[in-house]
Amino acid sequence: TPSIVPAGGNMIVTVQGSNFNTDCACVFGAAMIDPVSVASASELRCLTPAAAAAGTTISVLVIHRATRSYI
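Given the sequence above, the corresponding structure tokens read:
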């Protein structure tokens, strides 16, 4: 959450899943963003990058930086 971000970005997004750790990063399009926090192995938070336009729907993937494998 959320799925829609303001044009300026800098909104905290909470991602839920599994196997998260401090080696994870959020990927928004081509932008790889370090997490703001890893709350647990099943939840991390990242700041969104600037969007093309206000109200843009975003997709986020989580990647292990060292192995470049997506979770």
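The first strand starts at residue 4 and ends at 5. Try to locate this feature in the token string yourself.
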